Amino acid sequence: MHLSQGLFLLSALGVAFAASSTHEVKESVNPPRGWTLHSVAPAHHNIELKIGLPQPNFPILEKHLYEVSDPFHERYGQHLTKEEVEALVAPHQESVDLVSEWLATHDIRESDIQRSPARDWVTIKVPVRLAEKMLDTTYHVWVHDASGDSLVRTTSYSLPKHLHEHVDVIQPTTMFSRWKAHKSTIHDVSPAPASLTGPNAKIDASCNSTITISCLQQLYNVGNYTPSADVGNSIGITGYLEQFANRDDLQTFYAEQRPDAVGTTFNFVSVNGGLNNQSADAAGVEANLDVQFAFGLSFPINSTFFSTGGRPPFIPDIGTPEDTNEPYTEWLDFILAQENPPLAISTSYGDDEQTVPENFARRACAGFAQLGARGVSLMFSSGDGGVGDGDDNPATQTCLTNDGKNQTKFIPGFPASCPFVTAVGGTEFIEPEIAVFFSGGGFSNFFARPAYQDEAVKKFLDTLPPGTFEGLFNPNGRAIPDVAAQGERFRVFLAGEAISVAGTSASSPAFTGIVALLNDVRLKAGKPPLGFLNPLLYTIPEGFNDITIGNNPGCGTEGFTAIPGWDAVTGLGTPNFGKLKDLVVGY
Ligand SMILES: *[C@@H]1O[C@H](CO)[C@@H](O)[C@H](O)[C@H]1NC(C)=O
Ligand SMILES: *[C@@H]1O[C@H](CO)[C@@H](O)[C@H](O)[C@H]1NC(C)=O
Ligand SMILES: *[C@@H]1O[C@H](CO)[C@@H](O)[C@H](O)[C@H]1NC(C)=O
Ligand SMILES: *[C@@H]1O[C@H](CO)[C@@H](O)[C@H](O)[C@H]1NC(C)=O
To answer: Range with the lowest mean pLDDT among 62-76, 178-192, 316-330, 556-570?
Structure first.
């Protein structure tokens, strides 16, 4: 549409003339390290633009979140309703109107617009050429050097000056992250270990080389606790990148490791066209790992697997006609719109914090806060690169910043670095259980250290000799992980065969299974679910097995060291359900 038509439309609607103000740069980033500019974006390419309008009352929501999550506050457990949360993240009407007005000047009408329930996100599907005009930019195809993945992105975009204060973020523009599963697979595993317990051993010796449901129950002191299917409890696993959870494999797994669950299965929910292809060779290692262990540990609690479609990378040579956003925004939009999301949800995907634009990371994190305020516990794996990034071999990691300065820095993972989620690191072995070397740990460069971990983290920092890793990390940042669980040698079934899987990808669903059991304890006692966990967890460190051996090397360093108390390798430690179940009903 030409400018004159736009102006005609505006005057016909009687709206302000301001929509014609000149463009000014809204956001500009350095070309990210590790990506090469390939070509201009194809003209036929469509983009789903998500426009985030400011949430002026977010600080009030955050205050509510901390009150209902603080075990010493009188409002503990009094979670907000979906509508109350939405009211607190709603944008000013003026922002809604001015953005609509601007879209109308580009011939985009209300019927072309999708709005989130709180109206804080506006989504439109536009050809790349129109997006370029609206944002006064040029989109290019960028290729990730190491993987060959491609994305259609820009390094800078503009908005009419009067809109700057009415728009927080627009994506996809400058975001170069690649959502990855935090796991590795080792095939060729020995037959099922004999579950023999010696006369004096507390835990089966086989658990030192193979982790099963029984091993986690023994290690984490689940005893013979039996949760119920009918107290309104629920647990969820998210799946991305065409990772499908296979129901036959779950049966095989249950037959071996959870016989009482044979014949039961999970609910499947498709998000943004996500599939759950049940062909044996379409089964995903990550998805099978997650559902087998999270649902196996928490059986018979109502379990749901979410498969989110919308997969970058875009493949320029085939000319993929659409380029969706990062799939986890799709999932977050979807789950926020649900009346009853699962009460404990595990996600084993993430990326280096530095690949996510800060304003976008803040918005996603604000979305996690909304779920927490509604009583949902969110677990994320902390990453598999130790103190370094997830892209490289820990032995050769360079850990360069992608801010154009190429400085060496520890690279924390996102979403684990969001203070409103519970970041789960990894351990291995038994008697003693020690930190596994790849356990993602460190300090956010975006988010400040939240009050709930002040004392624990300061104590840890005080143990570091002066000058330790100086300049490599932000000692005032949100520290990860919060907790840990086993992350090595999980015995998973895939296409009918047993395989061995490792990663904090395994730790997060394992921990989440325990959280679901704790919710069972609370619900049976007539109490609300746990919701956002961290403020509670840091007040009950005695509910954890403190991990005091091991370290998480990366970036050419030995990384942090596990010590008594909280540390940046295993957080508070691994759960002791027997103790936690008594502690969590005390509030
Ligand atoms: C399911 O996966 C199989 C094996 O990868 C593939 O052949 C089949 O086309 C897929 N089905 C669908 C509906 O995508
Ligand atoms: C279990 O969860 C699913 C999906 O959220 C829901 O549709 C179903 O009603 C739940 N079933 C029970 C028994 O609560
Ligand atoms: C950073 O590294 C990239 C690629 O390795 C190089 O092109 C660029 O010039 C470097 N920048 C600085 C400031 O050293
Ligand atoms: C488990 O294996 C580790 C590593 O080989 C070893 O150090 C530890 O003693 C073993 N634990 C037991 C109980 O055998």
So the answer is: 316-330
Q: Hey, which residues does 561 pair with through a beta bridge?
A: 551
* Helix (H/G/I), strand (E/B), else coil: 547: coil
* Rounded-to-integer distance, Cα 287 and Cα 278, Å: 12
Token code pair at residue 295: 């649902």
- Amino acid, single-letter form, for residue 370: Q
Query: How many Cα atoms occupy the beta-carbon half-sphere of 336 within 13 Å?
Result: 29
With the most atoms of ligand 4 within 8 angstroms of its CB, the residue from 200, 429, 433 to mutate is 429
CB of 234 sitting under 6 A from ligand 2: yes
Cβ count near 525 (within 10 Å):
12
Gap between the Cα atoms of 99 and 110, Å rounded: 11
Closest protein CA for atom 11 of ligand 2: 302
CA of 352 to the centre of ligand 3 (A): 19
CA–centroid distance, 355 to ligand 4, in Å, is 38
CA atoms within 13 A on the CB side of 474: 16
Q: Which domains does the chain have, with CATH numbers?
A: 24-55+90-176 (no CATH), 181-313+326-584 (3.40.50.200)
Residue 583 has pLDDT above 90, yes or no: yes
pLDDT of residue 22: 93
Q: Quick check: 138 and 156 in contact, CB under 8 A?
A: no
User: Above 90 in pLDDT, residue 475?
Assistant: yes
Q: Which of 174-188, 307-321, 520-534 has the highest mean pLDDT?
A: 520-534
Distance from the alpha carbon of residue 404 to the mean position of ligand 3, in angstroms: 7
Pocket-testing residue among 302, 306, 523, ligand 2, by greatest number of atoms within 8 A of Cβ: 302
190: DSSP letter: P
Confidence category of residue 516, pLDDT binned at 50, 70, 90? very high
Q: What is the pLDDT of residues 66-89, one digit of tens each?
A: 999 999 999 999 999 999 999 999
Ligand 3 centroid–CA 396 distance in Å is 18
CA–centroid distance, 96 to ligand 2, in Å, is: 35
- Which ligand places an atom closest to the C-alpha of 404? 3
Mean pLDDT of 453-458: 98
Q: What is the pLDDT of residue 4?
A: 39
In whole numbers, what is the pLDDT of the chain averaged over residues? 91
Determine whether the shortest distance from the Cβ of 407 to ligand 3 is under 6 A: no
Ligand closest in space to the Cα of 343: 2
302 lines ligand 2 (CB under 6 A): yes
Instruction: Tell me what pLDDT residue 197 has.
Output: 52
Ligand nearest the Cα of residue 405 is: 3
Backbone torsions φ then ψ of 317, nearest 5 degrees: -70, -35
383-394 average pLDDT score:
80
Asked if pLDDT for residue 394 goes beyond 80, the answer is no
What is the C-alpha to C-alpha distance for residues 102 and 95, in angstroms, rounded to an integer?
Answer: 11
Nearest CA to ligand 2 atom 8: 302
Catalytic residue numbers? 286, 290, 505
Q: Which atom of ligand 4 is nearest to the CA of 431?
A: 13
